[in-house]
């Protein structure tokens, strides 16, 4: 990496994430790309999240607020970030070590690119592996999916500022709302076929109330989208017709229990992915 | 379609709500979303409430200026469409409290009940909308913080 490579700010919005935070931080610190800065934005954690973040010394900037919700916490991190590019990682998710490098390569190859997202593979902790088994028939649960989510997003700071912050009033659909605003503004985006982000499914806070609340929130966002003159055909994102590609060496050995549980279809997909390694560079 | 036929919402795959008189539906499995007009919005609580087709036709004819034969044909087309999109499925029995078809004070102009299908945001909606019974954000609202 040349010394004039642009700084990427990696923002972790945190609330009571001590159980996962070390692994998320490790997956950032393990990135091939440099230079990066790590910003932990905490929303009033009551566990050891802050101790973990601060134990890494100057390598991690920590900013705090209290009880504002995930979107506002992402915004706090973005507000203090110094990078030319912004990336976000939820502390229960993981990045492939080549995530930022591959995304930054897209920006180098296409100077007009505003944002880049990756495919995502879900994985289940052992304690909730039965959920993965139960959802085995859902493509979203077992196959790599397009990751229009903050946790895959790498965006130019200027483009982020153009669209504006995440809506702090949304607790579940803030990312979808933001991507819809970016779509409406005509930002130039790319969806990488590579699976570079791993979305952990775990047993915390699995409540009917959240399920209902989150569904209502998505419906409101979609309603607003359909009512705002969206009827123009959407642009097909670059790379959207490419088949998802799993990479070698996913960070599947860094789970808190020492091993991560993948649903059967995902295990099969990973085996098949080995043949794609030569196609990655 | 028989008058006593009932449907139910495929709750595992579907989020749906009537807002401003129109129904908005997301198929959480595919990322497709749907908007229904005001007539569909009027019908939706009866569909979701497992009411009989005959009850829905009765509602259409009492609320709108439409003859029963046309209402039945349009309703059947809508229900088949929703079933093909896996939004609804046949139901065997009535819900414990099926809504009744209320009589409107004044008949409204009729429009064919239908839903528009949008698949353009399927990629955008592929990851984030919640899957059934699976929530995954660590945050608690302020009113939940004292409960853990």
Record the SSE blueprint.
The complex is a heterodimer of chains A (281) and B (148).
Chain A: E1 8-14, H1 18-29, E2 36-42, H2 49-54, E3 60-64, H3 70-80, E4 85-88, E5 94-95, H4 99-109, E6 115-124, H5 129-134, H6 139-142, E7 145-146, E8 154-156, H7 157-163, H8 174-184, E9 189-201, H9 208-226, E10 245-246, H10 264-273
Parallel strand pairs in A: 1-2, 1-4, 2-3, 6-9, 9-10
Antiparallel strand pairs in A: 4-8, 5-9, 6-7, 6-8
Chain B: E1 6-9, E2 14-19, E3 22-27, E4 33-36, H1 38-48, H2 53-63, H3 68-84, E5 88-91, E6 115-118
Antiparallel strand pairs in B: 1-5, 2-3, 3-4, 4-6
Helix pairs in contact in B: 1-2, 2-3
Give a structural overview.
Chain A is α/β, with parallel strands linked by helices. Chain A has a single domain, classed as Spore Coat Polysaccharide Biosynthesis Protein SpsA, Chain A (Alpha-Beta Complex). Helices cover 35% and strands 20% of the residues of chain A. Chain A is built from ten helices and ten strands. In chain A, strands 1, 2, 3, 4, 5, 6, 7, 8, 9 and 10 form a ten-stranded mixed β-sheet that branches. The two termini of chain A are 16 Å apart. The C terminus of chain A is likely disordered. Chain B has one domain. Chain B has a four-stranded antiparallel β-sheet with strand order 2-3-4-6, covered by helices on one side. Chain B has a two-stranded antiparallel ribbon with strand order 1-5. Chain B has 148 residues and is α+β, with helices and mostly antiparallel strands. Chain B is globular. The longest helix of chain B is centred in the middle third of the chain and has 17 residues. In chain B, helix 1 runs antiparallel to helix 2 and helix 2 packs across helix 3. Chain B contains three helices and six strands; from the N terminus they run ββββαααββ. At the A-B interface, helix 6, strand 7, helix 8, strand 9 and helix 9 of A face strand 2 and strand 3 of B.
């Amino acid at each position: 990496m040349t010394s004039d490579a642009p700084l990427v700010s990696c923002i972790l919005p945190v609330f009571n994430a001590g159980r996962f935070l070390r692994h998320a931080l490790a997956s950032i610190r393990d990135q091939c790309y440099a230079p990066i800065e790590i910003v932990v934005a905490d929303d009033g954690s009551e566990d050891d999240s802050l101790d973990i973040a601060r134990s890494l010394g100057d390598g991690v900037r920590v900013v705090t607020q209290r009880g504002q919700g995930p979107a506002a916490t992402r915004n706090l991190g973005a507000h203090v970030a110094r990078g030319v590019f912004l990336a976000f990682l939820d502390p229960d998710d993981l990045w492939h070590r080549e995530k930022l490098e591959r995304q930054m390569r897209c920006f180098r190859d296409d100077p007009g690119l505003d944002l880049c997202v990756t495919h995502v593979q879900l994985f289940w902790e052992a304690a909730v592996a039965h959920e993965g088994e139960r959802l085995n028939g859902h493509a979203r649960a077992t196959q790599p999916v397009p990751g229009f989510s903050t946790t895959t997003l790498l965006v130019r700071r200027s483009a982020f500022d153009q669209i504006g912050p995440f809506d702090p009033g949304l607790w579940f659909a803030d990312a979808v709302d933001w991507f819809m605003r970016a779509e409406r503004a005509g930002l130039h985006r790319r969806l990488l076929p590579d699976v570079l982000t791993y979305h952990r499914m775990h047993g915390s806070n699995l409540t009917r109330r959240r399920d209902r609340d989150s569904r209502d929130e998505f419906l409101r966002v979609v309603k607003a989208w359909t009512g705002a003159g969206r009827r123009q055909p959407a642009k097909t994102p670059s790379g959207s017709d490419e088949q998802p590609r799993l990479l070698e060496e996913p960070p599947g050995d860094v789970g808190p229990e020492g091993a991560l549980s993948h649903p059967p279809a995902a295990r099969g997909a990973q085996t098949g992915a080995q043949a794609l390694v030569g196609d990655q560079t | 379609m028989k008058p006593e036929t009932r449907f139910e919402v495929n709750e595992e795959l579907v989020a749906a709500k009537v807002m401003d008189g129109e129904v908005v539906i997301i198929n959480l499995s595919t990322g497709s979303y749907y908007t229904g007009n005001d007539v569909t919005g009027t019908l939706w609580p009866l569909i979701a409430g497992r009411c009989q087709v005959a009850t829905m036709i009765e509602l259409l004819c009492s609320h709108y200026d439409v003859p029963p034969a046309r209402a039945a044909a349009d309703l059947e087309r809508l229900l088949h469409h929703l079933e093909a999109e896996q939004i609804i499925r046949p139901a065997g029995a009535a819900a414990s409290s099926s809504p009744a078809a209320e009589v409107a004070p004044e008949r409204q102009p009729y429009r064919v009940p239908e839903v528009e299908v949008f698949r353009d945001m399927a990629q955008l909606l592929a990851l984030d909308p919640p899957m059934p019974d699976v929530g995954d954000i660590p945050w608690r609202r302020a009113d939940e913080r004292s409960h853990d």
